[in-house]
Amino acid sequence: MIEKPLPPTPKPPSSASLKAFHDQYKFVQPNKKPNISAASRRLPIQQPSSFHLFVKAGLPFLLFSVGASLVLKNGLEGKNKERDKSRGFVTKSERQARLDS
């Protein structure tokens, strides 16, 4: 087998060409901080107040809980009334009405 000679290794770029490349693309130096004026600085983020948290999280949960309990209460009362009517039970007010008439 005949071995082919390796191509010559490229020379490292000279410092002048690196400086020209650097000046052309103007890389940001990692150690430099950008100049920020006082007007463009952001205010620190404030923690929400307890009232704001209640309105965002507590109030919807409270309304959901109360609404769900009302729906369940009405459903169970209707179910109990239907069961009593089917078994022939008479409520106290119906018995009172029969006695009065």
Descriptive overview:
By secondary structure, this protein is mostly helical. 57% of the residues lie in helices and 0% in strands. The protein contains three helices and no strands. It has helices at residues 15-25, 50-87, 92-100. It is elongated, with a radius of gyration of 42 Å. The chain starts with 14 loop residues before the first helix and ends with a helix. The relative contact order is 0.04. The mean pLDDT is 79.
Annotation keywords:
3 helices; mainly alpha
Number of discrete helical segments: 3
Radius of gyration: 42 Å
Q: What characteristic shape results from the CA principal axes?
A: elongated
Percent helix: 55-70%
Distance between the termini: 126 Å
Reconstruct the topology from this structure.
Elements lengths: L14 H11 L24 H38 L4 H9 L1
Task: Briefly say what this structure is.
This protein is mostly helical. Helix content is 57%, strand content 0%.
